[in-house]
Amino acid sequence: MIDPDRVSAELVRACEDAGLEPAAFVVFVVDAPWPLGTTPMAYLQPAGHVWPDTVVVFRAVGAVRAGRHHLAAHRLAVWNDLPGVPAAALGPMLRHELEHARRWELSGSRFFEADDFLRAALRRAGGHGYATLPTELEANAASAAFAARTLAAAELDAVRSSPECEALLSGHEAPADVVEATLAQLAGRDDWGTGMTGAERAAYVDGVRAACAAWEAPEDGMLTAGRTGPAIERVPLGG
Ligand SMILES: [Zn+2]
User: Fold this and answer.
1) What 3-state DSSP class applies to 163?
2) Pick from 116, 136, 171, 176: CA 20 to 30 A from residue 186's CA?
3) Ligand 1 centroid to residue 131 C-alpha, Å
């Protein structure tokens, strides 16, 4: 079972590492065991919504509950029971998701929309290449560096030996420009599932590139879930 105090403490530590404000985060702990084959923990950017094709853990949180923090917080969701995940993995898992939050602060909501198009296309194509998504490489590089600094050798071994967690330590180098690398991957595919023409897709990518360049990071205090630290919300089963 996930201990809310421990989630809170680990999140504060990971925020310190990522240069993010802990009070800007809400963590939904879904009171259910982790369903096989789904994501154990996920991030939803402040401007994001829960849709029918959103990751299962956020669908379990629900559009209404997640929506209460729309444009007000970085949102994380995790199952209450993570069989097979070593306790030492919690910090690196959080640090991975925080790197996505840091990317939102750097590049903005439009970038996440484009990244979602790319993720959805990969999912429909069978899920191959997920680990080589620029934003995943970036998040895993951050979690690997964080784990190397904060975990003992035996804890690193435990995380590495879990098939679900080993990518957190893979530490492949992230592309120097994650936005450009993402847009290049997206522009190189025609399976967005949107019905857009090639010219429309090219114009879309140019629009996202311009929006990222014009994005201004949120000011201090703009995102607030908790008063002095992260807010932890338990999500009851069926609720
Ligand atoms: Zn990720």
Assistant:
1) coil
2) 171
3) 9
- CB-CB neighbours of 108 under 10 Å: 23
Residue 127 has pLDDT above 80, yes or no: no
pLDDT tens digits for 178-237?
Answer: 999 999 999 999 999 889 999 999 999 999 999 999 999 888 778 888 888 899 999 997
Residue 116 is encoded by which pair of tokens? 């979602």
Centre of ligand 1 from the C-alpha of residue 62, in Å: 20
Residue 91's nearest CA partner among 45, 156, 153, 157 is: 156
Å from CA of 24 to ligand 1 middle: 19
Q: What is the DSSP letter of 218?
A: P
Distance 151 CA to ligand 1 centre (A): 20
Evaluated on CA atoms 191, 59, 211, 174, the torsion sign reads: negative
Q: How many CB atoms lie within 10 A of CB 131?
A: 12
pLDDT tens across 29-54, in order?
999 989 988 899 999 999 999 998 88
Q: Which residue type, as a one-letter code, is found at position 88?
A: A
Q: How far is the CA of 140 from the centre of ligand 1 (A)?
A: 8
Helix residue ranges per DSSP H, the chain? 4-18, 56-61, 63-67, 90-107, 109-124, 134-150, 153-160, 178-187, 198-214
Ranges of each domain in the chain:
4-235
**What confidence score (pLDDT) does residue 129 get?**
82
How many whole angstroms from 41 Cα to the centroid of ligand 1? 9
